Here is the input.
Amino acid sequence: MACSKAYRKNPMTRQDAIKDLSHDDYCCYCAETKGSKYTCCHENHFVPFEDLYEEDKEALIEEYLSEGK
Here is the structure.
């Protein structure tokens, strides 16, 4: 059964982005995800998404939404 052309997947919301981004820890200095790294920026300071600076959270959310993950 074919989908109509009018059908579109629901767009990603800010809340969806925050929920997805909250699963990782981030470098305090550059806001890169920790992943499997033990250090970043010559330090080992990683924090959860909610503990990042507001401007870093906003940048990550905007990047996430623009990539359409």
In short: The beta strands are 25-27, 46-48.
